[in-house]
Amino acid sequence: MTPIPRSPRPLLRRLTIWALAVCAAMPVLARAETAALTTETMDAFFKGDFAALDKENERLKQGKHIGADGGIDLEYFRLGLNAVINNRVDHREPYLREMEALTLQWATEHPKSSLAHILHAQVLEAHAWSYRGGGYAKDVPPEAWADFRKYLQRAAKYLQDHADVALADSSAHDLLLDIGNGLGWDIGTLRTIQQEGLKRNPNDVMLYFDMLNPLLPKWQGDAKILDQYIREVTKQTQADYGTGMYGRLYALAAEKEYGHALFENSLADWPTMKKSYEDMLSRFPSPGRLNRYAYMACLAKDRPTLVTVLAQIGKKIDASLWGPNPERSLESCQRWAKEAPSETKDDGKAHKKGQANPASL
Amino acid sequence: MSFASTSKALLAVALACTLACTQAATAPEFSDDMRTQITQGLRHEVARIFSLDKDIPLDPALRAAAEKIAEEHVARFDKLLPVWLSEEAAVESLAGKPPSFRAASTALLARLLNELALWQIEPGDAHYETATLTALRNGPDVCYGIRDSLAADFTVRILRIQALPAAEREAMLASERQLLTHWGQARANLAPWPDPLPQQAAYALLRRGPPAGDHPRLALPPGLASAVMGKGADYAALQPGERCVLQYWWLRESLRQGSAPAAVLNAFRYDTMLTAIARYGSTFDKPGVATGKDVAGPPPYPSVAKFFAATGVTTVSVQLDRDGNPLQASVIGRKIQVPGIRGVRPVAFENAFDDAIVKYAMQEDRHYDKPSGDAPFKFQMVWNLDDDNDAKASKGTKQ
User: Are B230 and A97 within 8 A, CB to CB?
Assistant: First the structure.
């Protein structure tokens, strides 16, 4: 992807390390370690090598490009782009304004490039979130809300103004879903955007994940709407993922809202979820997903499954995939797996109704 | 761009000579061993600079042609070295001194560094200049991916040729071959240092903030934007790779502004020239520690300059506020002498005192008697060393 990819690049490596901290906060679906494509994308973007980025986007915006672990390359490409745009710096405002100017320059120089337009809108969206921040809504000053909305509206309008080029690419729909979520667009509008995106690229499964957010009870949905959606998506994606999307989407729902109460407050069903993971792993063997599966089995108090999966993982334990306090979660789950069955009162409940608390996908 | 410890290898030649000079200093002439040690050390460095990293993706035909030029040049340098060595012995003899191994080895290293620097700033014929500017403007930045960037003088020129249409290659390679034949000769019509220096001009523009309607400019690539805008890094704080990106960006921005192509190319060449300071500065002096705190005292003598016994005069221009406090200082004149360099400008050493004198001029609490009007305050600093070349006291003298 980059002209000279194999040599030492201390500066880019340093920038990549900083930016990866941002990646770590994003919903990486299968891999704990950074995918090579993400790193290459970040390298090219940090260098300002638009030609390399555009070439890669053109390659990925059609076709399946499903990795051995079940993740799609488009996802890892987008992670690289996001990491650069959301790069951690001391002075965010001038950095974002510079990025706005750069991406607008690219869009002017390459008016037929969907990526150029999408990147510009994406920077505007990042600018919006720099006002909003990631904290509680109550901590956001009223003036910041106004700027947040203003920049999101600018981003939406920019995509609308360049719809003929930008909306030929499902990455624009992926971005519009985020923008629409921020602006509180109704579910119907968002579903239309998602469907339009899937028409452009039926293999862009990220559109399924992005649509989940507004369906959560804390936004516009409820448990029933969510369950209906997840089951529907699971059917639609069966050819490629079997029942895999069921587990992945509910795991995301747990991460976004339900947390420890996933199986109490949603309609998620552990046996179905377990089958979903088995299905996914049979198609796409992945140490990362095995770790998540084991973690969820632990939370579901399904010791037999936990013991089996831990044995399968062997030395490939990745503590980073074990929830919000991963090392402690891993420790306690491993300890519980070694206890005699009679020592714990929760045994036997899991197969009736799972009590999983997946914090990751 | 990797700036790992590559520069230390070349310097080790001179340092090794320094260690050996105790026993050699009194010898009436160079022994064969010493002669061999000097010439082999320098030859090794030239061969290193003129070798192309096998991992760099070069078109095979271009690589082969470039390697042939490199081979010819190393052979040419092999013939130059004994001549240079004899010249140093003659200079010492004229001064009534016995041939000093230490002086000769350092002088020859200085001469090599200067030939490399002269080669970097010397323009070619009109076609070469136009094509080079085209490659720099439109081709990829050669800032990352080169393993040994302090020894990549030849490599970056060949990569530049690769960025041009294939039809250009033969003529460009012929020009490269021609320019290399100038080693050891006087150079006519070398352009002076750009004023202001490119990095000063670039930062003056960047300080106005991100591009906007009232001050349009090319946007920075994200990596550089992160350092300059996101972290507020000044030029001195930039990593070598970031500086390189800034140099390319400034070249393109200067052209966008309508600056004369020859001036833009000259500024780029000076900006990217590997001077003695660029190659060895951080080996001798840690960045940021050279400023003395005594406002009344002289500036410290840069260690690289001291090692090569560089002396001379720098002229400084200081912009002042209404109270006579310094706002900005820049070097506007450089008259430098370096043992071993004769008949050509010592361009590799001309900026050896820049950093020290600018820091001195901008020192906190320094106050100037403001000249009338908006004219900047100008002064000269004379840089002298004692005969023993080991003077502890700094010799910068304000005139």
Answer: no
CB contact under 8 A, A46 and B232: no
Q: Would the ipTM clear 0.90, i.e. be above it?
A: no
Tokens of A275: 């089958």
Q: Taking a C-beta distance cutoff of 8 angstroms, is the pair B116, B274 a contact?
A: yes
- Model confidence over A236-259: pLDDT tens digits? 999 999 999 999 999 888 888 886
Give yes or no for residue B12 having a pLDDT over 90: no
Q: Is any Cβ of chain B less than 8 angstroms from the Cβ of A228?
A: no
Beta pairing class for B326-337 and B397-398: unpaired
Number of residue pairs across A and B with CB atoms under 8 Å? 114
- Section A96-119 average pLDDT: 98
- Interface check for A48 against chain B (CB to CB < 8 A): the answer is yes
Distance, CA of B144 to CA of B223 (rounded, Å): 12
Angle, helix A223-236 to helix A244-253, in steps of 10 degrees: 150
Q: Looking at the complex, does the CB of residue B133 fall below 8 Å from at least one CB of chain A?
A: no
Asked if B221 and A5 come within 8 Å (Cβ–Cβ), the reply is no
Q: Does B57 touch chain A (CB under 8 A)?
A: yes
| B145 close to A (CB below 8 A) | yes
SS (H, E, C) chain A: CCCCCCCCCHHHHHHHHHHHHHHHCCCCCCCCCCCHHHHHHHHHHHHCCHHHHHHHHHHHCCCCCECCCCCEHHHHHHHHHHHHHCCCCCCHHHHHHHHHHHHHHHHHHCCCCHHHHHHHHHHHHHHHHHHHCCCCHHHCCHHHHHHHHHHHHHHHHHHHHCHHHHCCCHHHHHHHHHHHHHHCCCHHHHHHHHHHHHHHCCCCCHHHHHHHHHHCCCCCCCHHHHHHHHHHHHHHCHHHHCCHHHHHHHHHHHHHHHHHHHHHHCCCCHHHHHHHHHHHHHHCCCHHHHHHHHHHHHHCCCHHHHHHHHHHHCCCCCHHHCCCCHHHHHHHHHHHHHCCHHHCCCCCCCCCCCCCCCCCC
> Residue B373: how many CA atoms within 13 Å on its side-chain side?
2
According to the model, what pLDDT value does residue B11 have?
Answer: 55
pLDDT, one tens digit per residue, over B337-372 is 999 999 999 999 999 999 999 999 998 788 888 777
Tell me the pLDDT of chain A averaged across its residues.
86
Interface contact A11-B221, CB threshold 8 A = no
Q: How far is A197 from chain B (nearest CA, A)?
A: 28
Using a CB–CB cutoff of 8 Å, tell me whether A84 touches chain B.
yes
Q: Which residues of B touch A8 (CB under 8 A)?
A: 2, 4, 147
Q: Are A78 and B204 in contact (CB under 8 A)?
A: no
User: Which of A6, A99, A104 faces B225 most closely, judged by CB atoms?
Assistant: A99
| pLDDT for res B178 | 97
The CA-to-CA distance between both ends of chain B, in Å, stands at 41
- Among the ranges given (A309-313, B19-23, B114-118), the one the predictor scored with the smallest mean pLDDT: B19-23
B243: nearest CA in chain A? A11
| A168 contacts chain B (CB < 8 A) | no
Mean of per-residue pLDDT scores for chain B: 86
**Helix, coil or strand: residue B317:** strand
What pLDDT, in 10s, does the model give residues B57-89? 999 999 999 999 999 999 999 999 999 998 988
